[in-house]
C-alpha cells in the first residue's frame, strides 16, 4: 500500500520547482485580481514577476552541464556540456526592469494616496468620480 504513494511522492518531488513556480504565479494572479488595496496589488505583481523569472531560469537549466567558461583543453564545438548563459543574462535584465516597474508603481501609489487619501481601489474610484 505504501508503494503506491512513493511513486506519487517521487513524481511530485521531481517537479517541485515547477509546482512552486506555478503556485507563486497563481498567488500573484490572485492578488492582482482580488485584492482592492493598490499596495497589495503591487506586491502581487512582484510575486508574479518573480515566478516568471524563476520559470525562465528553470527552463534554461541543463542537467549535467557546467558553466560556459572555456577551460584549457576544452573541446571546440562541444556545446552540449555547457549551460547557455543568454537566459541568465536576460533574467538579470528582467530583474532590473521589474525593480523599475515596482519603483514607478510605488511612486504612482504615493501620488494616488496624496490626492485621494486612500489606497483602496473602490474608494479611489468613488472619489475620482466626484
TrEMBL record:
<keyword id="KW-0812">Transmembrane</keyword>
<protein>
    <submittedName>
        <fullName>NADH-ubiquinone oxidoreductase, chain 4L</fullName>
    </submittedName>
</protein>
<dbReference type="GO" id="GO:0005886">
    <property type="term" value="C:plasma membrane"/>
</dbReference>
<dbReference type="InterPro" id="IPR050601">
    <property type="entry name" value="CPA3_antiporter_subunitC"/>
</dbReference>
<keyword id="KW-1133">Transmembrane helix</keyword>
<comment type="similarity">
    <text>Belongs to the CPA3 antiporters (TC 2.A.63) subunit C family.</text>
</comment>
<keyword id="KW-1003">Cell membrane</keyword>
<feature type="transmembrane region" description="Helical">
    <location>
        <begin position="12"/>
        <end position="30"/>
    </location>
</feature>
<keyword id="KW-0830">Ubiquinone</keyword>
<dbReference type="InterPro" id="IPR039428">
    <property type="entry name" value="NUOK/Mnh_C1-like"/>
</dbReference>
<dbReference type="Pfam" id="PF00420">
    <property type="entry name" value="Oxidored_q2"/>
</dbReference>
<feature type="transmembrane region" description="Helical">
    <location>
        <begin position="89"/>
        <end position="110"/>
    </location>
</feature>
<keyword id="KW-0472">Membrane</keyword>
Amino acid at each position: 500500500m505504501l508503494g503506491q504513494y512513493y511513486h506519487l511522492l517521487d513524481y511530485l518531488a521531481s517537479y517541485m520547482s515547477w509546482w512552486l513556480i506555478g503556485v507563486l504565479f497563481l498567488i500573484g494572479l490572485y492578488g492582482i485580481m482580488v485584492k482592492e488595496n493598490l499596495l497589495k496589488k503591487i506586491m502581487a505583481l512582484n510575486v508574479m514577476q518573480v515566478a516568471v523569472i524563476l520559470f525562465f531560469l528553470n527552463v534554461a537549466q541543463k542537467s549535467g552541464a557546467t558553466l560556459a567558461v572555456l577551460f584549457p583543453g576544452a573541446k571546440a564545438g562541444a556545446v552540449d556540456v555547457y549551460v547557455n548563459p543568454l537566459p541568465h543574462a536576460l533574467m538579470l535584465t528582467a530583474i532590473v526592469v521589474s525593480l523599475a516597474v515596482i519603483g514607478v508603481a510605488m511612486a504612482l501609489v504615493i501620488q494616488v494616496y496624496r490626492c485621494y487619501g486612500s489606497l483602496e481601489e473602490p474608494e479611489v474610484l468613488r472619489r475620482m468620480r466626484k
